[in-house]
Amino acid sequence: MWKVAVDVGGTFTDLYAVSRKGESARVKVLSTPQSPEIGVLNAIDEFLERGVRPQEVDLVIHATTIATNAFLGQKHLKLAEVSLVTTKGMEDIIEIQRQKRPNLYDFTGKKPKPLVPPELRFGVKERVNFKGEVIEPLDVSELLRIAPNLRGIVAVCFLHSYANPVNEIKAKEILERLGFDVVASHESTMERREYERFSTTIVNAALKPLVSSYLLRLVEALKSKGIEAPLFVVASSGGLVTIEEAMSRPAQLIESGPAGGAVGAAYYAKKLGVKEALAFDMGGTTAKAAVVINGEPVLTREYEVGGEVHAGRLVKGSGYPVRYPFIDLAEVSAGGGTIAWSENGILRVGPISAGANPGPACYGLGGEEPTVTDANLVLGRLPERLPSGLKLRKDLALKAFEKLSKELGSDPIEVAEAVIEAITEEMGRAVRIVTIERGIDPSELILIAYGGMGPLHAAELAEQFGIKEILVPMGAGVFTAFGMLNSDVKYSITRSVVKEVTEDLEPYFLELEAAVRRRMELSGMSVDRFERVADVRYSTQGWTLEVKADKPYSPEKLARRFEELHERRYGFKLDVPIVVENIGVTAIHYVNKVGLKGFDKEPLEIGKTEAWFMGRGFEEATVYERFGKGEVRGPGIIMDYDTTVLVPSGWIAKALEDGTLMLRRA
């Protein structure tokens, strides 16, 4: 029997599968952005053509970018129309938003346009206070009076429903009896701060029809191929959720795609005994970085979907807040398909990507603009025929650079070199965001490089930050899909408490554990472990830091962890009371993990080539097939089915027992 994971990227769709016998399979096909499920099915078709019967597939795991792409305005992906029913007087919370402005000194700047227009926002009489006491019950007659004016999906968001959702529950029941599809805020998140809770609920409502129809189409398509296996989806936290959970809270899937790679890097680091690592993923469209501490990727609950990105950072106040756990990733427009262009005689690289169609010029599919892949090809860092069978046209890549070099008044090879330098600097931005800006020294981390282009650029990126060791796993080009196979099923729930850290919070944690256990058991799974967190702040502050909490609850340990993290992040501590604002519990159901299998093959030299290395110029490099035993010294290029590893002079590449290539400075 086989477990299959399929990751849809902007340029390629990757499949990684393992059988109970320990066999593995890798597939890489071009993505189909307008209909992403076609790329998924193409990858599965190629996998089945290798002699696997559909009935032998007993689990399918999927990572999708459909939710993100819908907010980015991709054609054919339309957000649903949403109506808002809220406490009378609160109709314009989503218009007022927060004081945050995307551009601090732009006094004419505009906040993001609310997802619900004024004519579809309705207030009804009801009131619950912050203690959960019902001040005024729901006015049912008023709710029935506005019902004929509601359209699309209805988001019900009442004031303080996190403390007591009784009025929301009643409103939802009435509207559902009238035939409406309803998303209630207490089912989305049980946290205070009305704007963030309302926003999370409305994002869920806007995505619900799109994500539901996509997942149901995919399930039916798999069944038509004879695959009856259950389908799980990767959430932004890196955990797996059932399609039922994904359809009810689709905002969890916003960063589904990149999460799998970070989970894979965390599992991989833990297995190799690496305590602190930097996960670096470079694909065809973007490059992503995340930090792994003690075998776990770092998480954040501060995320905005559909907002602006500047130098790899989400511009706060430019998007719609979503209060779910997300892997703390930094992402920049730096992939193999990133286009180089001229602006008033100055070289620019990105943010536009050639994508899967037409792709880089060297693909021969009609692309005429030079990309990072084209630069690597003309500089001898990539062969003209990849082990996967993909043929690259060096003549077309050179032609694209000749055209750009004329606009820049430079030589085509010099322009290609500048493209590699510029893209390396851009990827460095992502690394700085998740390390230096978080108080972490990147030189003390081990770099785990994956993605189709990651191992090709890893050593030169590592040199920027003084990183001395790089790990390139087997199947690096489809490593995100491998990571998905090692994701556990995770259901999370949070609620506001607003108590001093010294108070007994154990009953509140136990209440959440019981609630999330019920959710897991309704999906037919048992809970193997609970994880606890708390959003903590000083009493004089307005915003929080997330800190791990113990079972049973220990106020001393939580306070100590908070102060250590606060000092590491901001450089100081305060002598004031510490407050726990929110608590969260994650229920985890373990999946059987899959490992990477090494192979007994010595380095095999397959040729020599003149290749350009950053900071060194052109050098004669030895080209090798991927090996599972022994070591080679740079300058060298190691070819694999789904990626290429660049080994500059001064570096050694050594194969470890599980097939990993460890690059270290000589």
Automatic annotation (TrEMBL):
Any one Gene Ontology molecular-function term assigned to this protein's record:
5-oxoprolinase (ATP-hydrolyzing) activity
GO process annotations (BP): glutathione metabolic process
Segments forming domain Hydantoinase/oxoprolinase N-terminal = 3-178
Secretion signal span: none
Residue span(s) of domain Hydantoinase A/oxoprolinase: 197-491
In terms of Pfam families, this protein maps to: Hydant_A_N, Hydantoinase_A
Q: Name one GO cellular component term.
A: cytosol
Q: Which InterPro entries match?
A: ATPase_NBD, Hydant_A_N, Hydantoinase_A, Oxoprolinase-like
Protein name as catalogued:
5-oxoprolinase
